[in-house]
Automatic annotation (TrEMBL):
<feature type="compositionally biased region" description="Low complexity">
    <location>
        <begin position="28"/>
        <end position="69"/>
    </location>
</feature>
<protein>
    <submittedName>
        <fullName>Extracellular solute-binding protein</fullName>
    </submittedName>
</protein>
<dbReference type="InterPro" id="IPR050490">
    <property type="entry name" value="Bact_solute-bd_prot1"/>
</dbReference>
<feature type="signal peptide">
    <location>
        <begin position="1"/>
        <end position="25"/>
    </location>
</feature>
<keyword id="KW-0732">Signal</keyword>
<feature type="region of interest" description="Disordered">
    <location>
        <begin position="28"/>
        <end position="74"/>
    </location>
</feature>
Amino acid sequence: MKTKRMSTLALSSVLALSFMLTACGSESNNNNTSSNTNGSTNTNKGNGNAAAAGGENKNADDAANAAANQPSTAENDPVTLKFISWKNGAYNQLYDMFHKKYPWITIEEVPVNGQPVMQVIAALEAAGTPADVTEIDTDLISFDQGGLVEDLTPYIDSSPIFQETTLPQGFFDTMTYKNKKLAVPMVDVPMWVLVNKDLLAKHGVDMPGNDWTYDDFRDIAKQITDPDAGEYGVTTQPEIQMRLLSTKAIADGHASNLQYMNEDLTQSVMSTPGVMDDIKWLHEFVTKDGSMQSNAAAEASGNVTKDFLNGKTGFAIGGDWVLPDLKKKAQFNWDVLPFPKGTSSQPGYSIYGPLSLLAGSKHKNEAFLWLSFQFTKEAQKWKIDQGANASVIDPELTAYYDQAPIWQGKNIEAVKIAQKNAKIQPGVTVPAWGDYNWNNILNDVIFGDRNINDVIPETEAWNKKTKELQASTGAAQ
């Protein structure tokens, strides 16, 4: 495990890689990897390797004390951790909670301000003020190859917080590369089907139950569509294709993972007959049912049906990011439902936002306290209050959904089902993920006029590329 600051050569490599990423663009939180649901559990067991968790300037006793969250007197000197984040103050309450628990540690948020995270890291290194922790905006493979992030395995194995915490099965699959745990989730971002209950009631349709099906979704969307009133069953939004269609493929047994990936995340099954049928199914909402507008039709009618908040559509996909506006601005009665049931299962959809300990940090033990703090009950409850999922399996946290102010008066059981059934969006540890054109091509097919058969050569080309990279880097796991 790296404990020294990056060398000049490594820093130069990071800068070069940063400029490359700027040209290519970053994919933010959309690239995460997992093949497991949050339904079953496992408990982390430590290996007692406390000394391995210490920096090279700390002795073994200091490292053991830090791992036990009982730092020595020397470690109680004031420490300021630089945390690279694009949340722009959204975590301020969480920073205060952490400071109250560890009074000698202060979190200084370093805003990204639209820059690639790697550039921010490199600039701070060059200035002699290295950052300690960062949210990740691209694939973790690049951060690992640049020598930027620590392997968290020895820290996690020595942490009483992790040892005493029950986590979902496959919890670290999204963040593990070549047997190294490179990150933990800063937040588990859930998604639900948003429902305009007023529009349903206007057409005499009852709110569906939480065990509703994809057939129910389609039938209701048709029932509540009234083009003369400018009302449609489904919002014309990329999220419908990105989230719902990908989840349906799993629900019907046509894919093992989100984004049409196979079981071990080595190949795409997007061009297989089952998934192609799923694509045709959603496309028919536009071409046959008329319950969802194409992009061109939506634009011609003033783009009203592209925003669920306008109240002109019955269903949309949303996550925690939509809740503030819905609470403040919606002029209609809205609620949430879990993703529908398919013929095989009822999976949900979730995104892990990776949080990594930087190799250049001068305060690694304190920085890991910030990472491990995310999995305490107080931090988990705060995140539930913001609309996020609990990342920890605990009856107290499950019960807390009923108390969270943000969900009062809403379908709380749907929120719990979405958390329990969630599949995690893949990407951060899949080679050539940025070249996988699953999203743009399906938007063009569903909402535009692109031929569905274009999916086949696109998928074959990417499968060949990622397979070659897996072989050359030994990335296949």
